[in-house]
Design goal:
Order of helices and strands: HHHHHHHHHHHHHH
Number of helices: 14
Keywords: Membrane, Transmembrane, Transmembrane helix
Helix content: 55-70%
Radius of gyration: 29 Å
Shape: flat
Structural class: mainly alpha
Organism: Flavobacterium cheongpyeongense
Protein name: DUF2157 domain-containing protein
Distance between the termini: 72 Å
């Protein structure tokens, strides 16, 4: 299914890990440059600004091709203009395939054609359904984006797939199930938790690292979805918007006590679990969830003036940070305040492969000059004496 050459793809992973090791100071720049020369890899860019520039260039190229095709075919398809988005999507597939055959991976040009393909097919289905059906569009977008991820390993495509597939399930529950609005939050909680543990199992059993980043992204988004599905503010306002008929204050929801408890308990569990298992992504999500929890409470219950609440919150956060910094600044292992030499926590997973590739890719060392003093000889286990000088 993957279009790229497996050897070049593995070399790209190794070079990426070697970059992280060089940034951390474990290997020198000469070793890194030598590895890049010895290992043929895919054509990609890690600099986000360069990648955005090539993405804009690819967007201009893609739109120019579509415009040229439109001008050539508009006279013959004047009454069937709805077919043009499908043609544009096919052009995107051809362009993505051509760039992949030329080893463009996470380059910027390929991003434009891959995302353009997903957008064109989504717009095509929307036009065919007269802008009235959400479900067919979500299904097609999820299918196309999943294919783009599996074939081209495009990270944004897996995010689009997850959002489109989640939209498909939510819309199906609301439209085709009785009491769908009541069960939707609980279904999304189970769905988010299930996807999280499924991705965790897949990552643990993953033998090839090609799909690691995609699985990690879905796993992280599932944590966010799980919390938002039970957040009181989100559930209440979404229920009110689906019901309609209110102007200023949304009506109270059933099981309000459960959702209030969920709003404040889950972020604490995120923090405890992330500190215990040293999960940095979950730690940041936990901090954001705590901030949203307090915002949710203040949205309905303004206990203190905003300036007093912000001041007290800042003091509490400063005191908490000062306390933990004092506890962790002398620790050398485990949870510590010491700077992380390796920014990518996945670096050491392939460190052995990097070392092996570097070792076997080295050229033979130059033979040192022979010493003028000759050794050897001897018939008594290398004693060095044969009865002559």
């Amino acid at each position: 299914m993957i279009v790229f050459d497996k050897n070049k793809l593995e070399n790209s992973v190794l070079i990426e890990e070697a970059d992280a090791l060089q940034s951390a100071g474990f290997i020198g720049k000469e070793q890194l440059d030598f590895m890049k020369k010895q290992l043929p890899a895919l054509n990609s860019h890690k600099n986000i600004l360069i990648r955005i520039g090539f993405f804009l260039l690819g967007t201009f190229l893609y739109s120019s091709i579509c415009s040229a095709v439109s001008l050539l075919a508009i006279s013959g398809l004047d009454h069937y203009w709805e077919i043009f988005p499908f043609i544009f999507g096919i052009i995107g597939i051809i362009g993505s395939e051509f760039l992949a055959q030329k080893d463009y991976f996470s380059h910027g040009l390929d991003d434009a054609f891959i995302l353009g393909t997903i957008l064109c097919f989504g717009c095509a289905i929307t036009i065919v359904t007269d802008f009235n059906e959400v479900l067919p569009t979500a299904i097609i977008v999820s299918m196309v984006s999943l294919i783009m991820f599996l074939r081209y390993l495009h990270l944004l495509s897996v995010l689009i797939f997850y959002l489109a597939f989640t939209t498909t399930l939510g819309y199906f529950i609301l439209e085709y199930m009785e009491a769908g609005q009541s069960i939707l939050p609980f279904f999304m909680m189970l769905y988010g938790a299930g996807i999280y543990f499924l991705c965790k199992k897949i990552i643990n059993d993953l033998t090839d690292s090609y799909y690691y980043n995609g699985m990690l992204l879905i796993k992280s988004i599932s944590l966010i979805l799980f919390y938002l599905s039970g957040n009181y503010l989100v559930v209440r306002e979404l229920s009110a918007s689906l019901t309609g008929g209110y102007y200023e204050i949304s009506p109270e929801i059933p099981f309000a006590f459960f959702f209030w408890g969920f709003t404040f308990v889950v972020p604490v569990l995120y923090l405890v679990y992330s500190l215990k298992n040293r999960d940095r992504i979950m730690l940041w999500i936990g901090f954001l969830a705590i901030a949203l929890s307090f915002y949710s409470f203040r949205f309905y219950h303004s206990v203190l003036p905003i300036e007093v609440a912000l001041t007290l919150g800042g003091l509490i956060m400063f005191a908490t940070a000062f306390f933990f910094v004092g506890k962790l600044k002398t620790k050398e292992s485990g949870l510590t305040f010491k700077p992380d030499r390796v920014s990518n926590s996945n670096t050491f997973l392939n460190a052995e492969a990097v070392i092996i590739a570097s070792t076997f890719g080295m050229k033979p060392e130059a033979k040192p000059a022979e010493s003028p003093m000759e050794f050897g000889g001897g018939g008594f286990s290398g004693g060095g004496s044969e009865g002559s000088f």
